[in-house]
Amino acid sequence: MTDREYLVELIAGMEEDSAVKLSVELMDAGTPLEDILAACRDAMDIVGKKFEEGEFFIPELILAGEMLEQIGIEVKPRIKDVAGPAKETLGKVLIGTVHGDLHDIGKNIVTFMLDVNGYEVIDLGIDVQPQTFIDAIKENAPQVVGLSGFLTLAFDSMKETVEAIADAGLRDQVKIMIGGGQVDERIRSHTGADSFGLNAMNAVSQCQEWITAAA
Hints:
By secondary structure, the chain is α/β, with parallel strands linked by helices. 60% of the residues lie in helices and 12% in strands.
């Protein structure tokens, strides 16, 4: 078993202390941050499947989120070192984990990367209802809206949120990106979003492209 596979096993097995300890050891040893984040995504895929199959319940999802938040605390300073100093505000991005999903490690990393690359980010948190997105769009006028979710049940929530934004007459005012878990082009088409983010840096690049084009 590789170190990455072992990290996935520890996270999916709810071994918080051991998982955080190993992730720090791997980062200190020079393991690319992308590998650590990929292990987190793989583990959350397992957790999500166990939840959908009735093996895990809400307490396990909360514990998994707390565990990955601790890993994120260790990852973020290292990401900042790689990304360099913050720049002037380049645009505004609204982001949140859609309703029915409590995962936020991916959202938090994307939020952090957008922040250090010069974007103002309004983070709505987890389990966000469509109306909350609508209210926040009206209040903050972002150029980009990011919908995050790890569980497959989040895909319908994303679709519902995109449709609600359209019904509110706001769809033409924002670009919508989805991300997390098994998101791909098929899911993007299902939800009606404009794009999907493969990883945090891809999300930053997409936001930059959209906001620059709109300027």
